[in-house]
Amino acid sequence: MKFVVMASGQERSLTDLCSEFGISRPTGYGWLKRYQAQGIAGMQEWSRRPHHSPSRTAAELETRVVELRRERPDWGARKIQHLLRQEGIELPASTIHRIFLRYQLVRDGDRQPRALQRFERAQPNQLWQMDFKGPKGWDQPVGPLSVLDDHSRYALALENTGSTQAQACRQCWSGFFGRAECPKRC
């Protein structure tokens, strides 16, 4: 208000006043214009919220996401995304999660804290980790079996077994157990 009163008096240049008040000239001109058009009411803080958001998710889609989350409170955005896909609705998991946050459907207990440090064994061959990778890009129902040394993160094996059954994995294991020194733990 002090700026607008001084600027309206035209005793000093607007450039000097803007410099004194630590604001840009376009901001100063904007305030003065609002004051002249609306008086004191024009000097209240305006909302910075956009007048419209053309890419905002439709209300009926948000309602459906909220319904699914309330039916399945333990499911996250990716699982809900899968259900929506089955209904022919394509929404990114990040959008679904933002809807959860907007409707306060994320409990503090659901949030996973970031790992503070990566664990690893002190020496190579102390522990091997085995896991099946996702089948994405493979023409199999199961992705390849990976075997990693926990210390070096060296991939000892990446084999397509075609199955998670022990018999299919045994052939893979016999190959790399014969090539490498056995670990202390698997």
Describe the structure.
By secondary structure, this protein is mainly α. The chain folds into 3 domains: 2-43; 59-110, no CATH class; 128-179, no CATH class. The chain is 41% helix and 8% strand. The protein has 7 helices and 3 strands; from the N terminus they run ααααααβββα. The protein has helices at residues 2-9, 14-21, 25-38, 59-71, 77-86, 93-102, 166-179; strands spanning 128-132, 145-149, 155-159. It has a 3-stranded antiparallel β-sheet with strand order 1-2-3, with helices on one face. Strand 2 and strand 3 form a beta hairpin. The chain is elongated and about 90 Å long. The protein starts with a helix and ends in a 7-residue tail after the last helix.
The ordered string of helix (H) and strand (E) elements is HHHHHHEEEH
Largest sheet, order of strands side by side? 1-2-3
Shape label: elongated
Kindly state the percentage of residues in helix: 40-55%
Rounded mean pLDDT score: 84
Number of domains: 3
The unreliable regions are none
Global structural class: mainly alpha
Q: What fraction strand?
A: 5-15%
Number of strands: 3
Q: Evaluate the radius of gyration.
A: 31 Å
Tally of contiguous helical segments: 7
Q: How far from one another are the termini?
A: 72 Å
**Main β-sheet description:** 3 strands, antiparallel
